[in-house]
Each structure stands twice: as structure tokens, then as C-alpha cells.
Amino acid sequence: MAIWSVIALIGAVAWWMIAFARGESVNAVWFVFAAVASYLIAYRFYSKYIQDKLVHPNDKRATPAESNYDGKDFVPTDRRILYGHHFAAIAGAGPLVGPVLAAQMGYLPGTIWIIVGVILAGAVQDYLVLFVSMRRKGRSLGQMARDELGLFGGIAAFIATLSIMLIIVAILAMVVVNALGESSWGVYSVGLTIPIALFMGFYLRYLRPGKVMEVSVIGCALLLFAIVSGRWVSESEMGHAIFALDRPTIAWIIIAYGFIAAVLPVWMLLAPRDYLSTFMKIGVIAMLAVAIVVVRPEIHVPAITRFAEAGDGPVFSGKLFPFLFVTIACGALSGFHAMISSGTTPKLVEKESQTRLIGYGGMLMESFVAIMAFVAALSIDQGIYFAMNSSAAATGGTVEGAAAFVNSLGLVNSDGSTVTTSAAVLAQTATDVGEASIVSRTGGAPTLAVGLSQIMHALIPGEGMASFWYHFAIMFEALFILTSVDAGTRVARFMASDALGNIYPRFRDLNWRLGAWITTGLMVAGWGSILVMGVHDPLGGINTLFPLFGIANQLLAAVALSICLVIFARKGHTWTLLIIAVPMLFTAVITVYGSLLKIFDPNPAIGYWANHFKYRDAIAAGETSLGAAKNLDQMNTVVFNTAVQGSLSILFVVCGLIVMIVSSIKTIQALRGIGIIDTEAPQVPSKMFAPTGIIANPAERELEKEWAAFYEKYPQENLEGTGH
């Protein structure tokens, strides 16, 4: 109790300094303390309450990984590797991009939503979806909706989940494209992680089964080599010629990668690559947190800026409510996580008690990533921030145009001084980080890289180190995001298999390789076409598509929570359903409101259809250029893209509302004792053992020794040497 009292006191002081103390600036160290203290208390007490009162795990029951073992998709996976895989898969672009974009509204609203939102909503969703999917042989969210809600609600849920999934994967891929475009260092280093992961997969599978720490050390060493050698490659003429690829080319490479990664066995590429990138992710975030504590950068951004109320921000348009809550999606609450939690992860869990660590704990770690990204964005000069994140249409794509635009905004720092910048400052910043330009480098990833570079350079100074840290961060971010792209594609394949299995049952056989290739090809074609559309968007794909990503993501979260609500209501729960109902209702309100604004708002900067008619009317009037569209072809592209975006907005909100309404009706019926069904798979006794937490306790270590001796005597009982 003394330890937890100290943690609570530290957290309370940190929150006071962030939320109530007002000075000329706020020290970034308080964000680290507030986040860590809140996460520790939430995991120790709130997640334990959810486990004891709602979930009730049973380790004597075989998980799908054991009962349905096939060596490809169903494989009992060491909890440490699975934690890494799950964290890597869920922590894509969202916790890096959303907080960076939302920094234009000030530091306070984003901080509260990221930390409080994850504790009460995001981590709850991830934990519960993972558990209920695991109890149903790893079924996808769409198929669980069909089982729980019936035909009408199930069809709406499938359309919503699959279409939203495709837009999410497309936006994740687009962030990678923007981060790696024309960056030979980044393309080379990220590309090299693929053969490294393949080597790790075969090493752990055939050469040294079960030697997790051994392969981890080797993988980390190879990863560091990829980063360091990337500088040599980028500085060589041949390396630059080979790896400095334009954005359309990178987009097609990512599309091909997504297909290959989704059809290979999970142990070969997906799990080791995610595990490898997790070392990178957690290591970098921990390093950044330590650097913030040591360097103690001062944040001069106001607690709440005028853009929060006016809604005319240059980074994205819209007021704080509801657009902050859909811009900061991953890191606080993300429907995409529900797809991973009902996709690859439940097919790999060894024991039911591990779902708390993987589901709730994994999401807390992602939230910490979001806080660190948020602080990094807040720590850089506001003039540089807005020059980097404003569209090329506003800045003209030049340092002179960007400086003039930023200076015209009339922004102020927290001490009341005016925010200004100059062409010389912007050019020097680009030189410091080894880039040709930092102007209009939208998407959040470059901004985070600049922030991390400046903080780390202050901690470890030296000639060329700012450039090294910038490209180190770019590779770190691309690794982050690609793990979500490959895992997302695999999950979309599972969803398509479940859906097509209702028509042709063989599609549900995940061992049918032709079916796997067909469903993967369909899903890759879906998100790939959206990616290509965004890459060629004259308005800047990330600027126009990220709000759609946020709304789609949060609608999916509301859908996932509503399905969990029905499931646990049918298990006899009453007041404990508030754990699910409160975040579901909050998410539903803000997201539906945001959807209606994107559909009906007459301001072209907010409403897709308003923007669509603006460009269409201009073409009809004979104009050949408008805003960022410099010719008639680009204007027609804008008309087409905004029509697609507006139509998707309508589709998402209609399907989401149908699912939530049907779920509410089914929940009320369950509370009245009507329509009680049990969709869990039959219980199968488990014949294996695995510890619950990251570190095994003494009793668990003794049992591990006994099981190791048993497997040595009866090797045939060990599932192909997976170490269990």
C-alpha cells in the first residue's frame, strides 16, 4: 500500500502541474509522470476488477491455439512474443499521427483524452474483444456480430467492419509512404527488417526452438546494423539511386508486401517481425521518456489554443468536440484494435489468464507511445510545427511560402509572445535532420521525428547526430506502421473467409491455401486502391483521408463495444455492464456527430460533399484550377475522391447505427431473460502449461521445469517444438 500510495501521489502532482498550474510554460517531464502513474494504477486495480468481475478466465480450458493447432494460424505462442506481436500490430500510425495532428488544439485536451480514454475505453475494448474471440475459436468481429445479432445486424456489422478495416489499413500504409518517400535511408533500413524477421522465424522454429532471449539479442543486433548501415547506403551514389523511391513506387511495394505477409505462415514473418519491431518501439519510447526526464524540455504551446474553439486550424479543420476524439484515435480508443484482438492474437494465446496482460496491458503501452509522440510534437517550435503540418496548398511547398503562411496565422505562445518563423530557420532545420525540405511533410511521422531528434540531440550531442536521430525515428515509425499493415491485411483475410464461408463453406478452412490467396487478394485490392487514390490526391491524401480514418476507427470501436455488451449481458451481468456501456455510448455520440458534420457541414474544409460540389461547380463554370488542384485533371481527381470519401462516410454511419441499435435491443432483451444464447465454443481440457505474466513467479518457474522434463521424455506432446 505504501508503494501504491507513492505512485498515486506522484501521479496527482503531475496532473496538477499539467491541468491546473499555469505559467509561461509547462515542463514535459510532468506528462511522463502523469501517464506512467495512471497506467500502473489502472492495470493493477481496474483491469484486475474487470478480470475478476466480468471476464473470469479459466486456465484449465484449452485456448484455440492449443485445441485448433495447425502450425500456421493457430500456434501457442510465448506470451512475451505474443505481447510483442499484439502491441506491434495495434500500435500503427494512430498513436504517432493522431496526437501530432491534435497538438494544434493545445496540450491539455489531448493529454486527458489519451490517458483517461485508454484506461476507461481503449484498453477495456481490447481486453474484452480478445477474450470473447478467444472463447469462440478466434472468430472475427464480423462473424461474432452475425452470431450475436442475427442476419440483419450481422450483415450491417460485416459491411461496417470490413469496409472500415480497408480504409484503416490504407491510411496506415499512406503514412508509411509519406514517411519513406525519397528517403533512401528509410527505405533500405525498413526493407532490411523483412529478411531479418524471416531469419528469426526459422531460427526459433527449427534451429533453436524456444530460445526467445537468444534470438532476441541476435535480432536486435541485426536491427541496429540495419539502422547504422542505412546512413552508408544513403550517402553512396548507388544506394541513393536504388533506394530513393518516389511515393507511388513505394505504395505499390507496400501493396505487394501486404499480400505476401498475409499468406505466409504466421511464425515465418508476421510474429517475429512484430516481435522484432516491438523491441524497437518499446526501446525508443523508453529512451525518449528517459531523455525527456533528463533534458526536461519546456513546452510553450498553450493549454488550449484558439483552434479548439474556432475549428479553423491549418492542420485539420473542426472544433475540439468532436474532432479531437476522432483525430486522437489509437492511443486512447481504436476500433482497429478490435480487429487484431479478434484476428491473429486470439489464435495464438497460450492461456486465458494471459489476455489481461496482452489486451489491457498492450493497449496501455500504445497509449504511452501516443503520449510520447504528443510531447515530442509539442516540444518543437510552433512555427516549425505548423510549417511541417500545413498542406502544400497553404505553404506553396517552399520555405518562403511556409514562413509567410505561419506568420500570417497570428499565433501566440503560452507566454503571450507571437509565433513566428523564417525561411532560414526552416531551411536550417531541414539541413540539421538531413532532409531536402521539411515543409508540408504532413502525416505526423516527420514531425515526431524532428521532435525526437531535437530531444535526443540535446541528450547526446554531436556532429551529424541530429540527422541520425531523425532517420532513426523515421525507420522506427515505418516499422511501427508496417506491422499494422501486414497484421491488418491478415485480419481482413480472416474476415473475408468468415463471410465467404457462409456462401461456400470451404473458405472457412484456413488451411485451404487457394482460398487464403483469393481472400487476401481481394482485401489487398480493396485497401490498395484507396492507398493509390490517396497518393495521387491533389489535396494531400493524409489531410483529407485522416478524418475519415478517425471517424471510421471510432465507429468500429463503438460497434465492437456494443457486441461485447450483448455477449456479457447474455452471461447474466447487470451493473458491471456499465464498464462497457459508458465508453460505448460516449464513443457513439461523438463519432456519429462527427460523421454527420463530415457529411452535411456546408464548410468545404470540413464537409466532404461541400468540397465535392465546390470543385464540381468550378469545373462546370469552366475553371481549370482551384486551390491545390492546378489543372483540370487534378480538379476531376478531387471530385472523384471527395465523392468516394463522402459515400464511405454515409456507409460507415448507417451501418454503425444499425449495429448499435440492434445491439441495444438484444442487450435489453438479455437483461429481461429473453433470447439468451451461448455462442462460446465447447470447453476442451488443456494439456499444456504457461505462466500468466511477463515474468514467471517462483511457482510457475518450478512448473515450467516439470513440463520441460515431461517434453524431453515425450517430445511428441510438444506442439512442433514451440517451447511449450
UniProtKB/TrEMBL annotation:
Pfam families: CstA
Kinase listed as a keyword: no
Domain named CstA N-terminal: residues: 27-593
UniProt topology in membrane: Multi-pass membrane protein
Transmembrane segments: 5-22, 28-46, 87-106, 112-130, 151-179, 185-205, 212-230, 250-271, 278-295, 315-336, 357-380, 468-489, 510-533, 545-568, 575-596, 643-662
Compartments where located: Cell membrane
CC per GO annotation: plasma membrane
Residue ranges of coiled coil: none
GO BP terms, alphabetized: cellular response to starvation
Keyword Transmembrane: yes
UniProt keyword list: Cell membrane, Membrane, Transmembrane, Transmembrane helix, Transport
Family affiliation: Belongs to the peptide transporter carbon starvation (CstA) (TC 2.A.114) family.
Name listed for the protein in its UniProt record: Carbon starvation protein A
Lineage, broadest ranks: Bacteria, Bacillati, Actinomycetota, Actinomycetes, Propionibacteriales
